Amino acid sequence: REKDDKFKIRMPKLRIVKEYKEKMKIDDDAERNMLKFKKSSEEKSKKMEKEEKFFREKFMYDKEISVINTATAECSVPSTRRVDLPVTAGEQLDVIDVTEGSAVICRNSKGRYGYVLVEHLNFR
């Protein structure tokens, strides 16, 4: 071991300019954020697909899902059943379909579907 230490060639450390080093760090952070964004959008799309599948099964909805109108929730309403959509005051909802009676099928920003009473909505 002592012989190896004696004959070991020592390479000088290259000094990196501070500005270049900071630029590399910024680029690396931007790349990490991009990867996080991709991952979160993939997770979100998978969750949206799962919610849509659940919606089609529960509501027996065969038509194409298209937004008829947008509405804002006037007050917060918790859901009593799984098919009801819990809403908070001021939340933006996409109206998907009109049903018989005083309820409409809506979708919230998280991609969840459910019935909401027309009384609780403010249409533009």
What is the second-level CATH architecture? Roll
The CATH topology corresponds to: SH3 type barrels
Strand share of the residues?
A: 15-25%
Any idea what the shape is? elongated
Mean pLDDT: 79
Pfam families: hSH3 (PF14603)
GO cellular component, one term: membrane raft
Keywords: Membrane, Phosphoprotein, SH3 domain
Main location: membrane
Descriptive overview:
This protein is of the alpha+beta class. The chain has a single domain (27-123), classed as SH3 Domains (SH3 type barrels). Helices cover 39% and strands 20% of the residues. It has helices at residues 2-7, 18-59; strands at residues 69-73, 92-98, 103-107, 113-117, 121-123. It has a 5-stranded antiparallel sheet with strand order 4-3-2-1-5. Strand 2 (92-98) and strand 3 (103-107) form a beta hairpin.
Helix/strand layout:
Elements: H1 2-7, H2 18-59, E1 69-73, E2 92-98, E3 103-107, E4 113-117, E5 121-123
Antiparallel strand pairs: 1-2, 1-5, 2-3, 3-4
Notable traits:
124 residues; alpha+beta; SH3 type barrels; 2 helices; 5 strands; 20% strand; phosphoprotein; FYB1/2-like; FYN-binding protein 2; SH3-like_dom_sf
Gist?
With 124 residues, this protein is an alpha+beta fold. It has a single domain, classed as SH3 Domains (SH3 type barrels, Roll).
